Amino acid sequence: MAGLAALVGVVARDAALGAGHVDGRFPELALVARAVESPRADRLASWHDLLGSEPHVAGTEADERTIRRIRDAFVALGLRTVVEDFVAPLPQPRSALVEIVEATDAAPASPPAPGGRRGVIGLPVTERNLAEDPATAHPGLTFGWNAYSASGDVTSGVVYANYGTKSDFERLRALGVDCRGKIVLARYGGNFRGFKAKFAEEAGAAALLIYTDPADSGAAKGPVWPEGGWANETCIQRGSVLADDQPGDPTTPMRPSVDGAARRALEGAGIPRIPVQPIGYAAATEIMRRMTGAEVPKDAGWSGGIPFPYRLEGGDALRVRVKVEQDRDLRPSSNIIGLIPGRVHPDQWVIVGCHHDAWGFGAADPLAGTIVLLECARAFAEASRAGLAPDRTLVFAAWGAEEFGIIGSTEWCEAHRERLARNGVAYVNLDMASMGLNASASASPSIRDAFIRASVRVPQPGGAADETVHDRMCAGGRTSPAIGDLGGGSDHVGFVCHLGVASIAIGAGGAPGTSYHSNYDTLAWYRSTVGADYASALMVTRLTCAVVAELAASPVVPLSCARHGSEAARLLEAVRARTADASAAAAVDALTRRAAALASAGARVDEAIVSAAPALGAAARAQLDAALLDLDRAWVDPAGLDGRPWFRSLFCATDRDNGYAPKMLPLLAEATESGDRGRVEEALRRMGRALDRLDAALRRASDVLADAADGVARGRAAGS
């Protein structure tokens, strides 16, 4: 990781040499306007052609070629570029087999295929090739697999577990269904697939099959690929089933994963001990139509789109075999980092990132975001050459091995923990960002207003002549766009949940279909389903550029003070509504009142910044910036969450039983849910200290502004 440190030193030196040439104007509006106007649809398509030319799973030779392509693109744009390598367990599949070995009708209607066995029905574990999409026959594509599955060969009966959530397995127990020694069949959705494996294993299952149900993303939703965009019967969702208590390399918790690093054993690090295999709904149908157990409860919502009764158990006559072989070897990958130096505050970083690894071609995931990253970098590189360099350093990051467990970005955050905690202004994530014309965002409280302002500047594709993204997001009577809370599942986690850096995930959805993690995630699928005009990607690039330009060029970092208190008060009210203990509820009420008071104080500081920023000197701006960054850092508690010390933010975390969903005010929420009075009291104390830190940062910001106002007043008095 030394490469970035050396590069940062060069950036800081060059900025110091050029600082005297900065004029007294504030170029934020000029840079925003330039950044919004610069992106081009044809360039986005070209980036897509460049990166979507072959399957590129992390740790493979194709991954290395993708890394070189992105590095060369950054260099050609004029970015100061460094490739930071890491080494992590990045499994590769060896073989997979799923077959029905016993059933009342186990003999196939036709003779077995060469090498097959009579009375055994082999089920497909890969997608069928399509003449309409020749890319699906690429030799670099694989059968369906779940990274970090245990290797094994299991033959047993079947239990259906709906989505395989914690509550689903609890319902099975309540119904008297025993999963011990069985092969559990669960459908995708409802939680992260790694937790399906975790809960199945805890229930005593011997193996897990995960399938795509037509009701969720297949034929029940609309025409399937290649006639339409939805998953056809052989479409298989690949993905990691690593479910550790933190993201990143499971063998190097809390420290960077570099060659030669001390490593712990994989066992006990969220790695399944049972075979896990994904299948499509053609294979699942063959199993489910032979199940003879009791039907699922009518009130459970467990039925999907397969045209047979959904049953809890397969019955004594049905036996299925699941065989999985894969390694868990250490393999290299890389993060590619490109910098545009800040001319005034080179030590302040605005970071824009998206991962580059995929399960196949990755046209949608991740490249619908990676192309936005590259086009955003191009826009700012050209603006810099035209004399509109950012005041703060822009860092463009293409992360490695996100699909295996958010590895690349986590290792980067751990390697640069102190620098990011000190100088990280904001992180913008673009994972799978441009998937339709319905813009959306999830964000830290402090950065939400910047997105709202950006949405006003960007035209809405397909809308009226003067319609903006803001107008479309407010359709239906809203006064402001709805912005979600950040949870898990992508590269923002290290920044916001571990370091307390303000973060936002920008994207757009609404395309009629999905090719998620399948061999059908090709350029042909994307251009047919999302659009060959790249209107979605152009809109998301403009939104991203507008947010980044404001973050990079405003005289003072444009992070809201008031939002911390108002969002905390909202979330505390939600915790209060779920709190049964009267004394705990009263304590939460007191915290809510404090948060509301901090929102009012923050609003006053926000108003003062608007009027005072142009008159602030360099020293006062630096002090004010530091105080504003400390507002987001105020949520960081070095002790971390109970049982999950890597998650240090008391504001947000990944839900520990879901993997994707956000858990807001996680320390306090989990404590109140536990019913443990001592745990609740400790969480209340630590939440109170976080509000103390927010209050202190607001007071520092207010003092800076007051001192500046006094200085202006004294100057005027002296002049008179």
Features:
globular; Aminopeptidase; 720 residues; Transcription Elongation Factor S-II, Chain A; alpha/beta; 16% strand; Glucose Oxidase, domain 1; 19 strands; 3 domains; 7-stranded mixed sheet; 4-stranded antiparallel sheet
List the helices and strands and how they pair.
Blueprint: H1 2-18, H2 28-37, H3 41-51, H4 61-77, E1 80-89, E2 93-102, E3 121-123, E4 146-147, E5 152-156, E6 158-160, H5 166-174, E7 183-187, H6 193-202, E8 207-211, H7 214-217, E9 239-240, E10 276-279, H8 281-288, E11 319-326, E12 330-340, E13 345-355, H9 367-385, E14 392-399, H10 407-415, H11 417-423, E15 424-429, E16 438-443, H12 448-457, H13 469-473, H14 493-499, E17 503-509, H15 523-531, H16 535-553, H17 562-577, H18 582-612, H19 618-633, E18 652-654, E19 662-664, H20 666-674, H21 677-719
Parallel strand pairs: 4-9, 6-7, 7-8, 8-10, 13-14, 13-15, 15-17
Antiparallel strand pairs: 1-12, 2-3, 2-11, 5-11, 12-14, 16-17, 18-19
Helix pairs in contact: 2-9, 2-16, 3-9, 4-9, 9-16, 10-14, 12-16, 17-18, 18-21, 19-21, 20-21
